[in-house]
Amino acid sequence: MGKAIAFLTRTRGSRDHAGSRLHWTDWFTYGYLLLGIVLMFGPVIWLLMSSFKTDAELNTFPPRFLPYAQEMITLDGHTKPLPIFTVTEGELEGVQVAQVRRVGIVSQVVKMDAPDEIIKIKVKEREPVEKLALAWENYSDLFKRFNFMQFLWNSTFITVISTLIMLLVNSMAAFALSKYEFRGRTVVLAMIIGTLMIPQTVVLVPLFLVVREMGMINSLWGVIIPGAATPTGVFLLRQYMLTIPDEILDAARMDKASEWKIYWRIILPLSAPAIAVLAILAIMWRWNDFLWPLIVLSRTENFTLQLALNSFQGEMATQWSSLLAMTVLTLLPIAVVFAFLQKYIATGIASTGGK
Amino acid sequence: MAVFLNSCMRIIEIPMLYLQQKLGISKLAWVFLLPNLLLFGLFAFLPVVLNLVYAMTGSDQILLEDRTWVGMGNYNTLLSCKDFLDPNSCTDDLFWRAVYNTLSFVLLQVGFMVGFALLTALILNSKIRARGFFRSVFFFPVLLSPVVVALIWKWILQREGLANAALEGAGFDTINWLLDRHWAFFWSVFVSVWAHMGFYTLILLAGLQAIPRDVYEAASMDAATPLRTFRRITLPLLMPTMIVVLVLSLIKSVQTFDEVYAFTGGGPGSATTFLIQYVYETGFAGMPRLFGLASAASILLALVLVVLTFLQLWASRRNANG
């Protein structure tokens, strides 16, 4: 039995089998990784592909991977472009024709070279001529039909401003907690640990009251301000600042630098790696935030992209084309950030334990 | 941008310099702490205290002075059941439905997620090509926003979507995935595992890489079988990380809201309504707004989370020492 298990679990890497052919465990490993790619990237790529399909193509079942669109042609004597079909039966078999209109099961078509002579054929006897085409209008429609720019602006404003405020406020607190000896430091630290325990999700009702009393309901500030002081941020920065030697500060004080100058000329630049990690995290949290904006922002013109997406998926269940394009544009910034900063994101999140 | 920030900093310097001359250096720490403490106080401590008060009041008025005192009334409403295992026999049956939904969701989601995260981490830790690439493959969904995740899967699972096309291609009948309560629940778990697994894989991978190489070398000198090596070396040495992962994912799973809400809306019926959604709907979305009841429910939830957080602190301390 022991031998059997040893046999079943040995890999190409084990010493006595080095150089041998691919073992089944290697097959399993690479099979799992391949499945991983399909399962993790597949849905996102499917979404991307779908967002370039026309409404007609989105309604075909079974769906196809690549976006196709029917070829159109403009003929003399017809004002609108006409869809092209290939005739599959009858005397015109194999000929490409343009459909003028369709009445029930009868399709009125014209030949390309004789655009005036209308021929009647059965709907069954024709097949659409298609070509690969990206339906960019799904994207351009977003700007025409919806207040898309407004949502994009709201999301961007909230993300940028709250990240800046958060970095400033958290780094100031971390500076005080790491570089000054003062009475009550332990108490403050304990208080911050305390807030780690109470996630925003369980104080929704009173938080709503506080924000309302400050007149920030239905204002972007109501989303920005309450989340600015994060315990995670203070911790992360404090841990990092503790590693900066105090001698540097003393030297600066000898040179008559003010404390504020020490903070933003010395401590901030030296903490750049930790600040970068926190900035990436903050951007992600803010851009993806949902529940709190959902409670604070109730007017459509204040919606963030996430809120707009969510509210439109109910209203536009039939309009997948716009919805899919909007989804792609919502995930795009995060995908770009990921592509460039992938290495730091992974280490940053692992070291802070997420939110 | 840099110029703008720089001039902002310069402007702040003037009052800070004044304060430094007035207070002296040691008291300046409090000035640096002030903005953070103010925000903490207003948006973290005050709400915690207010929540306790709110939970003991009734009516749909938001201002405390307009609200009626009901004492333990809200807790009574939430906690009175003839038979605690049957939500229909409870005064607030939706709350207990949410409790049971959350409980079964947490058990399934955390179980599957930690299991798959461990498997993935083990595979990513073995000798494979392009490890960095595969690490990002599994990590990518973590970055997507819950609403986007929900929409991606909704699109695949819709009536004429990819999943049904595959079913039909294989010769089966199509299924209305999200209109069937069991399937909807299954997919909620699946989507949640899909979206968060990469994060825990990353932590476990870090844990695996922290295990010293020479322990394995010693094991192979003693001709230990791979299975034995895994059971006697990898698993025990990974245990502290496993505990951290388990508790972290529990805390997060109990608070699941966004992705499932955008995905199923809590339905069909109340099959995927979880506790945070219950709080949101009782306090904000429903009419009348039952702030008191929502507060009381969130306090019960907070109790669970506090216990879990202490577990986590204990686990990470053990992790740090071990």
From TrEMBL, chain A:
<comment type="similarity">
    <text>Belongs to the binding-protein-dependent transport system permease family.</text>
</comment>
<keyword id="KW-0472">Membrane</keyword>
<protein>
    <submittedName>
        <fullName>L-arabinose transport system permease protein AraQ</fullName>
    </submittedName>
</protein>
<keyword id="KW-0813">Transport</keyword>
<feature type="transmembrane region" description="Helical">
    <location>
        <begin position="262"/>
        <end position="285"/>
    </location>
</feature>
<feature type="transmembrane region" description="Helical">
    <location>
        <begin position="27"/>
        <end position="49"/>
    </location>
</feature>
<dbReference type="InterPro" id="IPR000515">
    <property type="entry name" value="MetI-like"/>
</dbReference>
<dbReference type="GO" id="GO:0055085">
    <property type="term" value="P:transmembrane transport"/>
</dbReference>
<feature type="transmembrane region" description="Helical">
    <location>
        <begin position="220"/>
        <end position="241"/>
    </location>
</feature>
<feature type="transmembrane region" description="Helical">
    <location>
        <begin position="187"/>
        <end position="208"/>
    </location>
</feature>
<dbReference type="Pfam" id="PF00528">
    <property type="entry name" value="BPD_transp_1"/>
</dbReference>
<feature type="transmembrane region" description="Helical">
    <location>
        <begin position="320"/>
        <end position="341"/>
    </location>
</feature>
<feature type="transmembrane region" description="Helical">
    <location>
        <begin position="151"/>
        <end position="175"/>
    </location>
</feature>
<keyword id="KW-1003">Cell membrane</keyword>
<feature type="domain" description="ABC transmembrane type-1">
    <location>
        <begin position="152"/>
        <end position="341"/>
    </location>
</feature>
<keyword id="KW-1133">Transmembrane helix</keyword>
<dbReference type="GO" id="GO:0005886">
    <property type="term" value="C:plasma membrane"/>
</dbReference>
<dbReference type="InterPro" id="IPR035906">
    <property type="entry name" value="MetI-like_sf"/>
</dbReference>
<keyword id="KW-0812">Transmembrane</keyword>
UniProtKB/TrEMBL annotation, chain B:
<feature type="transmembrane region" description="Helical">
    <location>
        <begin position="28"/>
        <end position="54"/>
    </location>
</feature>
<protein>
    <submittedName>
        <fullName>Lactose transport system permease protein LacF</fullName>
    </submittedName>
</protein>
<feature type="domain" description="ABC transmembrane type-1">
    <location>
        <begin position="99"/>
        <end position="312"/>
    </location>
</feature>
<keyword id="KW-1133">Transmembrane helix</keyword>
<dbReference type="InterPro" id="IPR051393">
    <property type="entry name" value="ABC_transporter_permease"/>
</dbReference>
<keyword id="KW-1003">Cell membrane</keyword>
<keyword id="KW-0812">Transmembrane</keyword>
<dbReference type="Pfam" id="PF00528">
    <property type="entry name" value="BPD_transp_1"/>
</dbReference>
<feature type="transmembrane region" description="Helical">
    <location>
        <begin position="290"/>
        <end position="315"/>
    </location>
</feature>
<keyword id="KW-0813">Transport</keyword>
<dbReference type="GO" id="GO:0005886">
    <property type="term" value="C:plasma membrane"/>
</dbReference>
<dbReference type="GO" id="GO:0055085">
    <property type="term" value="P:transmembrane transport"/>
</dbReference>
<keyword id="KW-0472">Membrane</keyword>
<feature type="transmembrane region" description="Helical">
    <location>
        <begin position="229"/>
        <end position="251"/>
    </location>
</feature>
<feature type="transmembrane region" description="Helical">
    <location>
        <begin position="184"/>
        <end position="208"/>
    </location>
</feature>
<feature type="transmembrane region" description="Helical">
    <location>
        <begin position="136"/>
        <end position="156"/>
    </location>
</feature>
<dbReference type="InterPro" id="IPR000515">
    <property type="entry name" value="MetI-like"/>
</dbReference>
<comment type="similarity">
    <text>Belongs to the binding-protein-dependent transport system permease family.</text>
</comment>
<feature type="transmembrane region" description="Helical">
    <location>
        <begin position="103"/>
        <end position="124"/>
    </location>
</feature>
<dbReference type="InterPro" id="IPR035906">
    <property type="entry name" value="MetI-like_sf"/>
</dbReference>
